[in-house]
Amino acid sequence: MKKRARILLGLLCFCLFFLGQAQAQGTSQAPIASAQSSPGKISGTLTDSLTQAPLEFVTVALLKKGTTQSMGGTITDAKGQYAFNGLPAGDYSLTFSFIGFQTKTVSTVSITAEKPDVRVGNVRLASSSKQLKEVKVEALRPTITQEADKIVVSIEGTALAAGRTAYDVLAKSPGVFVDQDGNIQLNGRGGVTVMMDGKLTYLSPSDLRTVLEGMSAENIKNIEIIANPTSKFDAEGTAGILNINLKKNEIQGLNGSVYGTYNTNFKQHGYSTGGNINFKTGKWNSFASIDQMQRIGNREGTFERVYDAEGGKIYFDQTANGKHKNQGPPTFRIGTDYSINDKHSVGALTSFNQNTVWVDFITDSYMGLDRQNPETFINANNFLTNRFRSSTNNVHYQGKLDTVGTTLSADFDFVKISNAGSSNFYNYYTDLTEASRPTVQDFLFADTDNGFDIYSGKIDFVKPLNKISKFELGAKASRVVSDNDSRFYFNNNGLVLDPNRTNHFIYDENIYAGYVTYSTKFGDRFQVQAGLRGEKNESTGESPTMNQVNKRSYFNLFPTLFVQQKVSENYQIGYNYSRRIQRPNYGNLNPFISYRDPYTYTTGNPQLRPQYTHAVGITQTFRKDYILTLNYQYVKDVMSELPYLDVENATTIYTTGNVDDLQNVSMTAITPIKIMKNWDTNNTLTLSYNEYTFLTNTDGQLNSDNNNQRVVNSQFLYMLQSSHNILLPMGIQLEVNAAGRGPGVSGLYKVGAMWWVHAGLKKSFLDKKLDLSVNVNDIFRSYRLRFDTTIGQNINNFDQYLYQRTLGVTLRYKFSKGQKVEQRKTNSLDELNRT
After folding, report:
1. pLDDT digits over 15-48, tens only?
2. Contacts of 29 (CB under 8 A, 6+ apart)
3. Considering the entire predicted model, what is its pTM?
4. Minimal CA–CA distance to 240: which of 151, 332, 352?
5. Contact 377/439 with Cβ under 8 angstroms?
6. Contact call for residues 788 and 796 (beta carbons, < 8 A)
7. CATH entry, 251-834, from 2.40.170.20, 2.40.50.1020, 2.60.120.260, 2.30.29.150
8. CATH of 144-246, one of 3.50.50.60, 1.20.1250.20, 2.170.130.10, 3.60.20.30
9. Given the DSSP bridges, would you call strands 117-125 and 40-48 parallel, antiparallel or unpaired?
10. Where are the domains of the chain?
11. 3-state DSSP call for residue 532?
């Protein structure tokens, strides 16, 4: 595998070198006439007559008046503007044409010596009432594109999205890795913030997974990978932002779709069904979507622990099997935008998600001083039920304050989340040294209820200073109130409260933020954006059960700097720097003890500190498609899972703590390759070196106060992802996604290598109104999670398979009628990832 990786890296470097040498040979269109001999100019703007929005990509033909002789052609830019330069004096006509709009001609435009610069002004195009016949395009569009500040992964219409969840496609994005607990890494780095339509999800990793698994991937338009966000974004997220953009209504009139899916992991069966409907007429643009799913999951694993006790090594070997089923009332999203006039619009949206999950987790454990002759057998049967509810509500305003691009926007959000769970733990102990001793039973019960209320408001102002400079500023305030009441009981002879494992935790947090950015150009080659964001955090965590109160108040500045250099038309370089923060999620601050088995616990850490990151990067773009990114990150006070060992009692207590620091150096290369006419590929190679530093005592236990030893956990990591889009005969689309990931590190753990292959087929019928899709994930059952750590002479290893191999079949019917129009984008939020 290492040899193949070296060969692929060599080929990649050769290709990028060749492209760099070839960039100077790019071609450009010649002007109609030289500016020295013919100084005339014709320019203007095109807008939609109904919405007054600028029209992009409109074809503009310049003709000699009274003839069909073409003098040139162009298309309008994002502001609807066009221009013809270097024209001789004379009379001309202009013709404007665009699919879905009526063709329009301006018959006389005259250039004279007295008036060489002619401004036609604004021309409005009216929508066409004619229904155009569908044009079949056999070429495959790219699924990964590089924009100025992000990478965009197209999801809409892909075969791999059919029948899958939003969680599935997120985990398949370039450079993304998701572990068994839902924690996300990007380019080998943890601390990723997940947003939806530019808004924070405000969820813990497990709750975020629940929400994303309840959302059909077919509702997703694309995923934006923002490795280095600007100051306009919240500073939360040390490894960057993954923004999931849902499909927006772009059709005047009525359109939508309905779908149904069956899927299986060959142990359980699941389904999903739902649809969406959009309606745009006049000044109103409204949508509604609904999804109903039964999601399934299984896992099996082996866990090995060795405790270096005074009386000798204690061996703990465990096998585990689990399954879960998640089902609930339909998840829905509804929203509307209203254009007050051509300058001001308001809107609102709401979403609701409720589901109930049933989890069975069965473990068999053997423990003793001799691995071959264990002394104790423990059978632990855990059964959990949890009802999850979340509602997200937003109202927003957007205004254009003048004709030069000054805008003002505002958002207010209210999010409410609740979990109502209960667990039964049935433990059976068998003494293997004396067969005559009866099996001992120990039954436990837990009632775990928690909830979050989140309020957030923000306002953003953008002011162009001139044609090349822009000024932005904004402010945001948010408040989070959390109440967690977890009660633990002995259940051998009726319920008896266990005060040592019962806890009531109340958390209150306020964050106040403001930012300013300034962007400008220096000549035709350099664009610069500098920004500064300030965030003030005030929080109180109170545990009435333990009589503990933890208050915090801190203020931080987060500068950003971006420089874009245009070396040539085929080669651009971007330089960036940013400072960011990752705050603890609210559950990790809760000191409640979460029971896993008699010898395994998880607990929160009220003393957990946020981690801070300094990041610098260079991004090179060749021919707009080939991307090479180099990054360096230094992270202080890294938050990581830490296993604390009660060696004499052979018990492991997991918590989240701060290790000293992390240094990361990474290279990511994206190379789209067209193998043949109907076979496109997108290939992503990530090379990363991670080095974690933490402190231990002489016995190997973690301790940052009385340390005697500085320990380094480091690893070089490679990850190669290759996505193939193949157009087969009869209009069948085949997609294959393959990836290989080498060994890595995460905090104290060594992470084993893995690889996987996914494939999907898609065929359309009824003039592409009906889509049939079939997909298979993890074809070779190779997506296994292996984590190992050694602390002193103590060993903690586990190996899990989460039954990623699945088969799914989906039918989706689409209906639409109307014309394409421009759609407003929603704004952003930031606290939900931490619940």
Report:
1. 433 334 334 333 333 344 333 344 788 899 988 8
2. none
3. 0.75
4. 151
5. no
6. yes
7. 2.40.170.20
8. 2.170.130.10
9. parallel
10. 38-127, 144-246, 251-834
11. strand
